[in-house]
Design goal:
Number of helices: 7
Helix content: 40-55%
Shape: elongated
Strand content: 5-15%
Structural class: alpha+beta
Order of helices and strands: HEEHHEHHEEEHH
Distance between the termini: 66 Å
Largest sheet: 4 strands, antiparallel
Number of strands: 6
Length: 197
């Protein structure tokens, strides 16, 4: 009975010994410090530094320099990026809540308030809005995508009974391109998961 309990403790003992070796390597007495070379760089010779050598790392007295922040164009870009995000975040939040919460079941149409927001702030900017709406808009519905069954998306329900999906991401990209033309491509590249379609 004692043998199995000893075997169970072996990995813990091994882990403790490795931990002690690591701690002793990190906390050497003052005088000469030896920096351990990473396993990938084991072919390089080990270098020793004395405590009196000038450190190559920055101290608390030397704050980190971020050259991009000193660039006025970069600061202008960050300000513009924050403005665009403030503009589109409410509709992104609403859309994600509609798609990913229990607020709407599959096949359920949006409420009048949500539909007004989605049509006015998303669908109106879709590159193929007229084709999507077709003969007329009856409602907006949430359901599973016909090809990607695990994915929920928004559908335009037309007055003739046909319903067709639309991408809220495409709508947002088109909105950003229309409202912020000089910053759109950079914003889309840095803030959207997929390419700028």
């Amino acid at each position: 009975m004692a043998a199995p309990s000893l075997l169970r403790g072996t990995p813990l003992l091994r882990l403790r010994l490795q931990h002690q070796r690591l701690a002793s390597a990190l906390f050497k007495p003052p005088g000469r410090l030896t920096f351990l070379v990473a396993a990938a760089e084991s072919s390089k010779p080990e270098r020793s530094f004395s405590v009196n050598d000038k450190p190559s790392v920055l101290s608390a007295k030397d704050p980190t320099k971020y050259p991009r922040l000193d660039n006025p164009n970069y600061r202008k870009w960050k300000i513009k990026e924050a403005e665009i995000l403030r503009d589109i975040e409410p509709i992104i939040y609403l859309t994600k809540e509609i798609l990913h919460s229990d607020r709407y079941m599959d096949g359920e149409c949006l409420t009048a308030e949500d539909e007004k927001a989605v049509v006015g702030k998303l669908l109106a900017y879709h590159p193929h809005c007229e084709d999507k709406i077709g003969c007329g808009l009856a409602s907006i519905m949430v359901d599973r995508h016909p090809q990607f069954k695990h994915s929920r998306c928004l559908f335009v329900v037309r007055t003739d009974g046909i319903w067709i999906d639309f991408s809220y991401q495409k709508c947002l990209r088109a909105y950003v391109r229309e409202k912020y033309p000089s910053h759109a491509e950079r914003f889309i590249k840095e803030n959207f998961k997929r390419g700028s379609s």
